[in-house]
MSP domain-containing protein (Meloidogyne hapla), 68 residues
Amino acid sequence: MSVKNLLLMNPKEVEIASVNSTVEEQFIKYSIVPDIIPKAPKNLLKLVFNNGSKDFEANLGKYIFNFN
């Protein structure tokens, strides 16, 4: 499964709170304003993918696949 497919998954299938903390760490690392993170994790994931941040996608993918 590609990481982008996570956007299509039922939120119950992925623990958004756990993914959200990883998203926040990466947003801070790449100096992206993190103050909207708690409000819209799915939108933030979509934003990251649309901006083509390959390092972030790889890190998020490793986290999710290790989480399962």
Summary: The CA atoms of residues 3 and 22 lie 14 Å apart. Residues 3-67 form one domain. The helical segments are 16-29, 41-50, 54-67. The first helix runs from residue 16 to 29.
